[in-house]
Amino acid sequence: MQILIPIIIVVAIGVFAGLLLAFASKFMAVPSDEKTEKIRECLPGANCGACGYSGCDGYAAAIAAGEAKPDKCAPGGETAAKALSEILGVEIETEKKIAFIACGGNDENTTKKFYYDGMPGCAAAALTIGGPLDCEYGCMGYGDCVKECPFGAISMKDGRPVIDENVCMACGVCVDTCPKHLIKLIPENSLARVNCSNCKRGGAVAKACAVSCIGCGICEKNCPVGAVKVVNNLAVIDATLCNGCGTCKEKCPRKCII
Amino acid sequence: MKTTTMIVSIILAGLLTNNMVLSKFLGICPFLGVSKKVNTAFSMSIAVTLVMIIATAVTYPIFYFLLRPDFEYLETVVFILVIAAIVQFIEIFLKKYIKPIYNALGIYLPLITTNCAVLGITMLNVTDFDVNAYSFGKLYLFSLTNALSAGLGFMLAMVLFAGIRQRLETADVPEFMKGLPITLVAAALCSLSFLGFAGIGG
Q: What is the CATH number of the domain that holds A59?
């Protein structure tokens, strides 16, 4: 009999707590918008903040209120955008994008103007007379983007960051992080990429890095479909025109188109 | 001891000498997990303080009238059950009636359901005060004060440590010590410094 009383106490408290919660959830239920719930279900729930809202819940509420467009979810990509546009009854166009670091420099092919031993991180190094590299537009490899990537898609390899394109969700966090603005969001299936961001021309650029774009314009002259233009001494490829023939890659004297 | 002296000593003990995190090693999980930024550490501490007080308000009468003196061994089971239910209830209640607070506390409230600091304070209330020496009213007052000061002590430790960690971010730490190792070393030093307060309580 001695065992019965404690059992009764615990069961009674359990039942009371259960009933309390059951009633509370029934009578204090907050009527949530059905549309918001549906929208929220289509979002991946990564809470990465790429959309610019506090998280997936915040973004769902903003879409439901008509304050945001449904194509801002980078991790959800095309599937999420399609599902959302079905709920909302609007048409949108999206294509899968990935982040791309437009710099081919590494410890072998670049030269340094000084040895940097200050606060760790790209942001601090970039503030120190533009960083240790001779190339003002080059990746210094202190890995700020590696630290910031919410999906762990960026890793360091031979002293420079490398983006795993299968993991990248194109959320754009690294684009904002890079103090040199080297990272761009490009279409995943782009066939030719300019692997340099240096918009100066001539000898100084060529000396600073072995794989720099010097703005010579050979690619522009040779492209059979006119997809390559040299803007600001830097080759720019129009992905909508490029047919992937590879002429620019062959002709580039600096081998900076990949 | 007079009631007022007792209350002052409870508050001092909760804040400094018997600090929840740095002396009793309770609530280490949020101490390491949510202390990366000062403002998140602050929100978490507010939520913990709130839940500690409400949990004490509910569990102490249950202990005093229901479990004492024969079933004191049930306190762990019963307290876990009650605290989990209370936190759920608070969440529902806040969502319905005080939406701004619900939004501010956000994820921290459900996290507290399984926080050992909250369970710890309710169980310490039971052992800290001599049940036979005081009336229920006084014991209840002491317990609530104890919960409040433990919560504030938790907040002090969290905010102090978050400040230290923010400075660690920019410090040049050796490669093998980066991340958790240096954080634990900092936590140990922080705890050691609180040991210096041990003399105050007498």
A: 1.10.15.40
